[in-house]
Amino acid sequence: MKVLVTGGSGYIGSHTVLTLLEAGHEVSVLDNLVNSSAESLRRVEELTGKSVTFHQVDLLDEAALNELFASEPVDAVIHFAGLKAVGESTQQPLRYYHNNVTGTINLLRAMDAHGVRTIVFSSSATVYGGQNPYPYIEKMEIGSDNPYGRTKEHIEDILSDLGAADARWRIALLRYFNPVGAHPSGRIGEDPLGIPNNLVPFIAQVAVGRREKLMVFGADYDTPDGTALRDYIHVMDLADGHVAALDYVASHLGVFRWNLGSGIGSSVLDVLHSFERAVGHELPYEITARRPGDLPAFWADPSAALADLGWSTTKTLDQMCEDHWRWQKNNPQGYQDA
Ligand code: WQD
């Protein structure tokens, strides 16, 4: 299929573009490069020996969006583009709603106008919020507790309503947990701007000497080692999940939801020690206060994706950290090294 990947030069996007190319799909990428580098796509072309058409377009630019669909017909869209920092979203809710929700509505209107009605949407486990027991199951009531998560919720509602109103749509909503790791080549990986919000990129920057030490946000949770539990998933497993979901909706009309997770809860200290094994020595850390808004624990019930898509995670936490470390070691400043 010819697939347009929005946000395709980003972390999960670039790994999914590579996996799509290796599965024989043709790929175009739309990205405004506000949070990513086009270098990632140059390296994807180098790794696969295949070319990617790139469009530097913002989803808020409706004219450019319609021109893109008119000039380059595609069969399906995988939609990653969006702002995704939970903390930032609480300070800038309007920016997040406009960029993520209005941008998605513009995308869907352009798709519909050009007869493209197959979409895989990058949702997030954050939509489950704190009211649900874990492991999270797709049929649970969703209710996020931050503006970023609520943009994902609203987009899921828009896509559900669209699918209910027009039976021609084929829609996959993918709720993923905590993506970490990198392509085993070490040539592409996570390259957050500024101070990383997320655990593993922060640990990686400590390991490569860009940060002094890891602050562990709380060791007084009711968990085996007192630190919070999350469901970490290798970005290559996650990319495979997107391709499997695309293949499924290509032959199934309707709206479908799947968790993409391992079903395993790992603690902050589990992750730190796994990364230390990858690096080969201890890494400095300090236990500090809990981060406001963090949940003590959650992980996925991944059984629906296995039953429907034949998909499950294949990589261990140690493999995630080994691959993440290879990327960071080879690219201490991320893509700025290019
Ligand atoms: C994991 C654990 C922290 C950093 C977020 C978003 C979610 C999704 C994934 C987009 C927590 C602890 C972290 C640090 C720490 N993103 N931690 N020191 O919060 O589970 O999920 O990213 O979809 O929407 O909410 O991931 O990596 O930020 O934190 O101790 O410097 O690591 O407290 O327990 P989180 P995270």
Question: What does this molecule look like?
Answer:
The chain is of the alpha/beta class and 338 residues long. The chain has a domain at 2-180 and 231-261 and 298-310: 3-Layer(aba) Sandwich (Rossmann fold). 40% of the residues lie in helices and 17% in strands. It has 11 helices and 13 strands. The chain has helices at residues 11-22, 39-48, 62-71, 86-91, 93-113, 147-165, 199-207, 235-250, 268-279, 303-309, 317-330; strands at 2-6, 26-31, 53-56, 76-79, 118-124, 170-176, 178-180, 214-217, 229-230, 232-234, 254-260, 266-267, 285-288. It has a 7-stranded parallel beta sheet with strand order 3-2-1-4-5-6-11, sandwiched between helices. Strands 7-10 form a two-stranded parallel ribbon. Helix 3 (62-71) packs parallel to helix 5, helix 5 (93-113) runs parallel beside helix 6 and helix 9 (268-279) packs across helix 11. The longest helix has 21 residues, at 93-113. UDP-4-deoxy-4-formamido-beta-L-arabinopyranose binds next to helix 7 and strand 8.
